[in-house]
Structure formats: C-alpha cells, structure tokens
Amino acid sequence: MTEAPATPVPPARPGGLRTALLAVIGLGLLLLGGGLAVALGIGQDGGPATPTADSVDAGFSRDMAIHHLQGVEMANLALERSEDAEVRQLAFDISSTQTNQTGRMQGWLSLWGVPPTGGERMAWMADGHGSMVMDGLMPGMATEDELTDLRGLSGAEFDVQFLRLMIRHHQGGLEMAQYADEHAALAAVRRLARTIAETQTAETGTMTDMLAARGGTPLPAP
Amino acid sequence: MAKDRTPARPGATGNRAKGGRTRPVANVVAPQRPWGLIAGALVVVLFAAAVITYAVVKVNEANANKVESPDDISGLQAYEYAAGQEHVTTPVEYTESPPVGGAHDAFWADCTGTVYDVDIRHENAVHSLEHGAVWVTYDPDALSDGDVEKLADLVDGVSGRMLSPYAGLDSPISVQSWNHQLKVDSADDERLAQFADLMTRNSDFHPEVGASCENPDFLASPILAGEDSAPVGQSDMPTTTTPGATETTEP
C-alpha cells in the first residue's frame, strides 16, 4: 500500500498576526472587565465605618438630641407664655434650630442602628464625664421642679427665669459639643458639633445681655 | 481551526504516485487569514470601545455644569466672618456692599423664598445669611422688569432664599450667602443658579445650621435700609399687612 492516509495538514500560521489578534482580544477583555468592575463598584469599600453605640459620634448624637429636646420644650413654653418680642424671637430661633438639629442627629442614629435612648449618659466622653450626670440629667438641664416652677410664671418674671434656665442649659451643653468637635470620626458630626458650640456660645452672650436688661441675675454655671 | 486547514494542491500530491509518504505541506501555499480570530478581535474591540465611549459620555454629562465647592464658581469672593456674631440694634458699618457677615440685628429678615420689592434693612438681612440664606440683590436702575422677573424665578418659593433691590450696588446683580459673594452683570448668568443651588442652607458654610428663615411679621412689614432697628418678629402686637413685601414674582 503506497497510499498513506492524508496526514492532517496543520493550519498555516501567520504567527505575528495571530499573536497580535490574541493580544487585542486579551486587552479588550481586560478593559471590559475593568469597566464592569468600576460600573459595579467592586473593590470600593463602603466609606467610613458605621459608628457603633459606644462611639463618640453615636454618643454625642444621642445625648445632644436629648439635651436639645429639653431646650426645645422650654423655648416652646416661652413662645406660648412670653409677651416680650425679643424673648419670643429668641425662643422661636432656639426651638426651630434645635428641633432641626435633633432631627439630624436622630436621623444619623437611625441610619447607624443605634437607639435614640438607652446607654449611659456621656459615657462616650473620656475621663469620667459620666459622673457629671445627676439624677439622669446632663449638665445644664433643668430639673422637673424647675420646669414646674417655670410653667407657673408669667410676664417679666417668666422672661427672667426662662433666660436664666436657658443660659445655664446652653452652658451645660457646651462641653459635649466641644468634645465631639474634637473627637467624632465623621466630618458631618464634627461640623454640627462645632456649629452648636459656636452659636450657643454667642447665644449665651446675647441672653446674658437680655437677662441684665431685664434686671435678672444668672444662675451659677453648671 | 480545522476549517483553516490548507488543502493540498494537485501539484503537491504528485509525489504520492511514486509511493513516498506525503509530507506536511505547510507553508507551501500562501497563508490563509485566521478569519475566526479576526472576527473575535473585532467584536471584542468594538464592544470595549462602545462601553468605554458610553462611560466617558456619561461621566462628562454628569460633570457638565457641576459645582461642588465655591471654588468651582469663577468670580466668587470668600470672606471669613466668624460664627457667633453679636446682635445689635445700632446701625452697622459693613465693609462689603452688600454685606456678607458681621454683627446684625436680633430679628432676621424673612427668607422663605421671599421676593421683596423694597431695599430691606441690611442688619436684618445679615441675620438671614447667618441662618443659611442666599440673598440676591440688584441695582433697580440697571435691570429691566424682565431681568428682575428672572431673579424672582430663582428665589420665589425656595425657602432659604430672598431677593431685594439694593441702592448703590456697584454691579447690576450681587448674590451673597454667609462669607460668600458673587457679582454678575446679567440675570442670564448661569453662575447665579449655581451659586444659589450650592449655597442655599449649605451646612458647611453658614453658622446656624438648622435655623429657620420664617419671620412672617418682617415679611408683612419689612424694615427698610436706613431705618432704625425695631422688634419685628414674634411679637404680640397685631401687625397690619403693608405693601412692600410680596411672595409673588412682581418686580
């Protein structure tokens, strides 16, 4: 038998072209893969870590919201009771601003899964600031007796007592705000804390002038 | 790849008749193009090009006219008035005109998307800036009614903004927020809307984050530039509505 079966003939190999084409395909797939990764957000971390319940961010948001809400309560009472235009304007400013800020802080807590109550007041501040909490009240907060007393006043007497309590309330919250401005992890939290520290300091000055103009004397600072 | 196999040409098979084993005939013929690979490469390249073009177009669209910081607005001037400015009942000599910060009246001007047709008292307006308002001012002698209408469209109904004529303005239009100011010549300048969108109640740039713009009594009877301070706000005194402030777009 002389007729050998036809041996498979290897394909012609224009080697350079083939390699180039494979390289193009490889590169193209690589680009596609990279594009998809970017589009799907693979490899990005989820931004800053969510603050935990014992963090400065969460502790400040929870405790300042609680502190603010008593300020709102007193301011709303002044809006109802006071007959002094300047006191009423101040009260409206405090009520609307602190209600807004409380909403911001409680919104953050909701996103972080941290309850707006519970925990130990001011334990998030280093060096035993928790011991400044008396009967559950943070510095500057009015006692239930003081609030009852305020509700019983009217006219100029009300205005003076309201200013005295609100000055002390602002002074009491200052240290928390300054601490959070320095130690919170998230920029938005630091920013709000600084805002509170700066504007309440100014407002304390304004109220001290208003109190003096109405013949009142300040309470001892907390 | 089997399809690419090159068939032996008659001339090449001539040896078979002589009984010799056929040898591979590679490279004997002109090489055939690897059509499969070419098509594959073409598809991949076209697809990748389409994806990348789409991505570039989308990113450009998203960035078009995008303003993320005051620095992105050309001509914007920044100032550094500290938070916590004093409340005063006396007139204030402001360095900037219109003012962009400093001491101010205890009663803020209503800035709930308010279109004033009077030159409101500057000391009250600065308090609104402290609350996060964008205050648009114009030289009434330099603008047509139509131009004022365009400015009113930017302000009307958007809480956190207010518009008023301003006597002695050194440019046809000036828009300001706390510590920021932009002066432009035309009501059609796109930077006006960019400024207003960026700065209205922007908590990065004004002192009293979360403060209100409401002052219905000031809205009803605004105090005019040059007038004395007066407690116009949360008062028990009944106030009568006077012409001067409207929430319509009437210039």
Automatic annotation (TrEMBL), chain A:
InterPro entries: DUF305_CopM-like, Ferritin-like. Residues 57-211 form the DUF305 domain. It holds the Pfam family DUF305. Keywords: Membrane, Transmembrane, Transmembrane helix. The chain crosses the membrane at residues 20-42. Gene3D superfamilies: 1.20.1260.10. PANTHER family: SLL0788 PROTEIN (PTHR36933). This is DUF305 domain-containing protein.
Automatic annotation (TrEMBL), chain B:
The chain crosses the membrane at residues 35-57. Keywords: Membrane, Transmembrane, Transmembrane helix. Residues 238-251 have a biased composition (Low complexity). The keyword Transmembrane applies. The keyword Signal does not apply. Residues 1-24, 223-251 are annotated as: Disordered. InterPro entries: DUF3105. It comes from the Bacteria. It holds the Pfam family DUF3105. This is DUF3105 domain-containing protein.
